[in-house]
Design goal:
It is a single chain. The protein is mainly alpha-helical. It has two domains: 2-30 and 152-209, Endonuclease Iii, domain 2 (Orthogonal Bundle); 38-146, Endonuclease III, domain 1. It contains 13 helices and no strands. The longest helix has 20 residues, at 190-209. The radius of gyration is 18 Å and the shape is globular.
């Protein structure tokens, strides 16, 4: 896997030399590897559309509450609690409903994480987005970080948009619609392009907000 990762960064750098410059300047991006399954998807849902600090605080309360209930973060622990109790951990009404939808899908067998491993990227996305609360971005992050697929492009990610604008010296931040064609030349290594752009974003964000 380490060799494959190194090759991926090398290959995308051949397609776009500015990626090689990012790699030489900042080193290889930290691993985005996550453990798969119910807890990971629930955590991604909890973290959507809130700051990192808020997301971590809320997730800490949710996880603690679920472990007390079921001994582990699993569908049964979520289903044992009503939505008002989940909201007491800091979840919005909408996210509490999403947590129940995910738990019901896994508990019923309509979502089977093991089966996802044998499926093509778009089929995995199609399976996941059927569940209320899971959009394409969440499914793509699962493919990229958990399943480590090499050609995933979460084009709706704001950080990727801004990093692409800066790296490519664009006049304006690309739209979601523009992000797909923009990354086409980087196939089949768009995962590595995304990881380098996230790394680039962290550094330009620090620089532009410093002082």
């Amino acid at each position: 896997m380490v060799k494959a990762v190194e090759d991926g960064f090398h290959q995308v750098g051949l397609l776009e030399p500015r990626f090689t410059q990012i790699l030489e300047r900042h080193g290889e991006p930290p691993s985005r590897k996550r453990k798969g399954g119910f807890e990971t998807v629930l955590k991604i849902i909890v973290q959507q559309q809130v700051s990192i600090a808020s997301a971590n605080a809320i997730w800490g309360r949710v996880r603690k509450g679920l472990i007390v209930t079921g001994g582990t973060v699993n569908p049964a622990a979520v289903l044992a609690l009503d939505e008002d109790t989940l909201r007491g951990f800091g979840l919005s009404r909408q996210k509490a409903a999403y947590a129940h939808s995910l738990a019901e899908a896994v508990d019923s067998g309509s979502l089977n994480f093991r089966k996802l491993r044998a499926m093509a990227d778009e089929d995995v996305i199609a399976d996941l987005v059927q569940i209320k609360g899971i959009g394409r971005w969440t499914a793509e992050i699962y493919l990229l970080a958990v399943m480590e697929r090499p050609d995933i492009w979460p084009g709706a990610d704001i950080a990727l948009m801004e990093a692409a604008r800066h790296m490519l010296n664009l006049a304006e931040r690309p739209t979601i619609k523009e992000m797909g064609p923009l990354a086409e030349p980087w196939r089949p290594y768009r995962t590595f392009a995304a990881r380098l752009l996230w790394l680039h974003y962290r550094h330009i964000n620090k620089r532009e907000t410093a002082g």
